[in-house]
Amino acid sequence: MVLLGLLDEKQRIIDKLRSRLDPREVRVAEKDHHARREPRPCGLTVHTGIGCSYSCIYCYVPDMGFPLRPREYPLTPLQMAYAIAVNPYTLPSRSGTMLAFGSVTEPFLPETRGKTLDYISTLKRHLGNPTQISTKASLGEMDVDGLKRSDPEISVLVTIITFKLHPRLEPRAPGPEERLETIRRLSGRSLHVSLFLRPILPGVTEPEIQLLLKRAAESGAVGVVAGSLRVTRGILQRLRLAGIPTSSIESRLPRYPRSRRDQVVVPAGSAKRLVQETAQRLGLKYYPSACAANMDAHGLSCHACSMGPCGPPEGLPRFDADEALQAAEELGISDVSVSLRGNRIVVHTRRGGVVRRFAHMLRDAYKRAVVIRG
Ligand code: SF4
């Protein structure tokens, strides 16, 4: 049993955590967005803080309205575990929904690092999901020990996108050499660490790809995740003010951002191909997206999107249409049919809205793409 077992486990965890919280703590956790948000393709992002003081020029976080002065996230670790457990889209356990730390703040700022480690160890203990963290911080021995103790299987991504232009692009973040030292420390403690080459800045990152990967490999990274830049009007303006030429970026834009908050992805196909070729030559694993590194760190297979497949097909959970239908019934969805076509799970239904939750659970539990047909 895959999905039914995970649904039982979800309920057991919810009951246990609720019994350890007082009614006010339960109410606050249930209202929190971690209890409601749909996971992104990389999993459910977990916020350990609000705001980030690194002020990297290419970052979209300020344009989303987050403050530059960081503070730790208000939920206690148990509340956070409960919020994630009750989220209608998530499934617990190693076979469940991926979790990703580090999306809207640096998790190892002085203001956030304590909460980050507390969250990771509590989520590991109570939920056990495959977890990933991305950082630009300089991690000392104590941080690395804390991470190892909290979740020895965690996938760690260390961002370095340029040596040359770091002072202009990331003026308040630790330098690339300190981050290479972080990779060395993490690798020295047998943690799964990858270079996070995101965002690839056209005209800035591309000429340095070979050197960046070489230095990361020498420092002990097992792989590299490459990702595109997303620009807003604010980012383009900040890049120009910092003296970074934006012509290579603007010439590749499919359209100009419409507003300060509108994010447009800058295609980086040729740079990603160079990253892949260079990685192969250096013996680094190439991960097409962050979740691929998370899957690899946990020895899991996933064939849920066209960027994969990640891991061998024999590593996929066995799909059982009867079990999936029983799970749909448990979720209160009666008028569906479910079948496997190749490696895709096809759901026939006329109840689009309700079925989104079911589709997320099918994708997470069986690690396959899900197609909903009306
Ligand atoms: S197939 Fe790979 S890249 Fe796609 S969702 Fe799964 S782990 Fe991520």
Specify the overall morphology. globular
Main sheet attributes: strand count, strand direction, barrel closure: 8 strands, mixed
> Any idea how many domains?
2
* Overall residue-averaged pLDDT value: 94
Q: What are the secondary-structure elements, in order, as H or E?
A: HHEEEHEHEHEHHEHEHHEHEHHEEHE
CATH topology of the largest domain, anyone?
Answer: pyruvate-formate lyase- activating enzyme
Class based on secondary structure composition and strand pairing: alpha/beta
Tell me the total number of β-strands.
13
- Bound small molecules, deduplicated: iron/sulfur cluster
DSSP helical segment count? 14
CATH architecture of the largest domain: Alpha-Beta Horseshoe
The amount of beta strand, in percent, is: 15-25%
Q: Work out the helicity level.
A: 25-40%
Distance between the termini: 27 Å
Query: What Rg is obtained from the alpha carbons, in whole angstroms?
Result: 21 Å
Detail the poorly predicted runs. Answer: none
CATH C-level of the largest domain: Alpha Beta
